[in-house]
Write a structure and sequence with these properties.
The protein is of the alpha/beta class. It folds into three domains: about 1-120, Methylthiotransferase, N-terminal domain (Rossmann fold); about 125-370, pyruvate-formate lyase- activating enzyme (Alpha-Beta Horseshoe); about 375-430, OB fold (Dihydrolipoamide Acetyltransferase, E2P) (Beta Barrel). Helix content is about 35%, strand content about 20%. It has helices spanning about 1-15, 40-60, 75-85, 100-110, 125-130, 160, 170-180, 210-220, 240-245, 265-270, 275-290, 305-320, 345-370; strands at about 30-35, 70-75, 90-95, 115-120, 140-145, 145, 165, 185-190, 225-230, 255, 295-300, 325-330, 375-385, 390-395, 400-405, 415-420, 425-430. It has a five-stranded mixed barrel. The chain is globular and about 65 Å long. It starts with a helix and ends with a strand.
């Protein structure tokens, strides 16, 4: 979602004559788009701001132009006043629901007057104000359809930084998707903090489910692949599971975070589901789409987690057998209930558990990738590789696929025989039609 937000910030600034650059050294305007999920990411903001301040001071000292510095995203939403206090070099603080105000805020700042913090806006105001035409390049694109969260997991800041669950109207989503297709996009990834809780207003004024939205998107000419992330187990509805069986455009890859394998820890996390419910859900999904690849998220070292709890997590991983996963040590976030819980796990214990979990997840990921050797998969080619005539594309399961002699296929889908699977990618050869 931060990638999507960054693209949209570039879109609203483009009419002012701004264009993106890969380095900050020569930039007139630098925006740090931030995440508040983990403490390390939030603290990195202040480190980067210090570097930008020094960069700006050196430029001014040499007689060059200054640099406008902005902080956007969820850290801006949660710590706006603190950012301005800790780092006076910051000119603008813009929350995730207010980046459509960037041109106005930038103009005000340039004139050295007016408010510098823009954070409290409703999501519908943001999307209504964004330009319809996006500056997306390439054959894949992100498309935000839902924002916010009503789940209130005890470790998570999203309900406090992104607000309550809100879904974009179906009409607006389809319009943006058609515009993307018109620019050559062939694969879209629908985004939301709880994307499978989507209930946007449909053509008849009634709520649309994510499954209905997927069917509608599949009717758009040029859109050949649909993905969505991130989902919550409690919102994995019957019609969405059925859509995975019926809709070939919906890729056989599902990111369905469980976070822990212990019922006791899941209750402390306020996940509102247990391990058995998760197992049953996975069984139903695989029955509907036998070739589906499952991805997940895991937190180790949650307050109160003991050795038995962690063994339950390892057991869940073995039983589900993930194709890929993300795993982290618990990071206390200020203002969340978990931050005040007792029995915090010692760092060295949490690290040992993380290494053990990641070793198991890595083993499963490699095994899944290697199991694809000998299969023929449709690959959407996205860009040229590092070697001459090499091309890199995406499999239906989201892995990178490296193919020699495929550079003429950028933007197309072609059948590839998989020769080998590695940790994070596949190698293959083109099947000549």
């Amino acid at each position: 979602m931060n990638v999507y937000d960054s693209e949209r910030m570039a879109d609203v600034l483009r009419p002012l004559g701004y264009a993106t650059t890969d380095t900050a050294e020569g930039a007139d305007f630098v925006i740090l788009n931030t995440c508040h999920i983990r403490e390390k990411a939030a603290e990195k903001v202040y480190s980067e701001l210090g570097k930008l301040r020094e960069m700006r001071e050196k430029r001014v000292a040499k007689g060059g132009n200054g640099m406008t510095i902005a902080v956007a995203g969820c850290v801006a939403q949660a710590e706006g006043e603190e950012i301005m206090r800790r780092q006076p070099a910051v000119d603008l603080v813009v929350g995730p629901q207010a980046y459509h105000q960037l041109p106005e805020l930038l103009t005000r700042t340039a004139r050295a007057r007016g408010e510098r913090i823009g954070a409290d806006f409703a999501p519908n105001e943001k999307f209504d104000a964004l330009p319809v035409t996006r500056g997306t390049e390439g054959v894949t694109a992100f498309l935000t359809v839902q924002e916010g969260c009503d789940k209130f997991c005890t470790f998570c800041v999203v309900p406090y930084t992104r607000g309550a669950e809100w879904s974009r109207p179906v009409k607006a989503v389809l319009e943006e998707a058609r515009a993307l297709a018109g620019r050559g996009v062939r694969e879209i990834t629908l985004l939301g903090q709880n994307v499978n809780a989507y209930d946007g207003e449909g053509p008849d004024g009634k709520p649309f489910t994510l499954a209905k939205l997927a069917y509608a998107l599949a009717e758009i000419e040029g859109i050949d692949r649909i993905r969505y992330t991130t989902s919550h187990p409690n919102d994995m509805s019957d019609d969405l599971i059925a859509a995975h069986a019926d809709l070939q455009t919906l890729m056989p890859y599902l990111h369905l975070p469980v976070q822990a394998g212990s019922d006791r820890i899941l209750r402390l996390m306020n996940r509102k589901h247990g391990r058995q419910k998760y197992f049953d859900l996975i069984d139903r999904i695989r029955e509907a789409r036998p070739d589906i690849a499952i991805s997940g998220d895991f937190i180790v070292g949650f307050p109160g987690e003991n050795d038995r709890d962690f063994e339950d997590t390892l057991d869940l991983v073995r039983r589900v057998n993930y194709a890929s996963a993300f795993s982290f040590i618990y990071s206390p976030r200020p203002g969340t209930p978990a931050a005040t819980m007792a029995a915090h796990v010692p760092e060295e214990v949490a690290k040992e558990r993380l290494y053990a979990l990641q070793a198991l997840l890595s083993e499963q990921q490699v095994a899944f990738n290697q199991s694809l050797a000998g299969r023929v998969l449709p690959v959407l080619f996205e860009k040229k590789g590092r070697h001459d005539q090499q091309a890199i594309g995406r499999s239906p399961y989201l892995q990178s696929v490296h193919v020699e002699g495929g550079d003429h296929l950028i933007g197309q889908i072609a059948n590839v025989e998989i020769l080998s699977g590695k940790q994070n990618s596949l190698s293959g050869k083109l099947i000549q039609s």
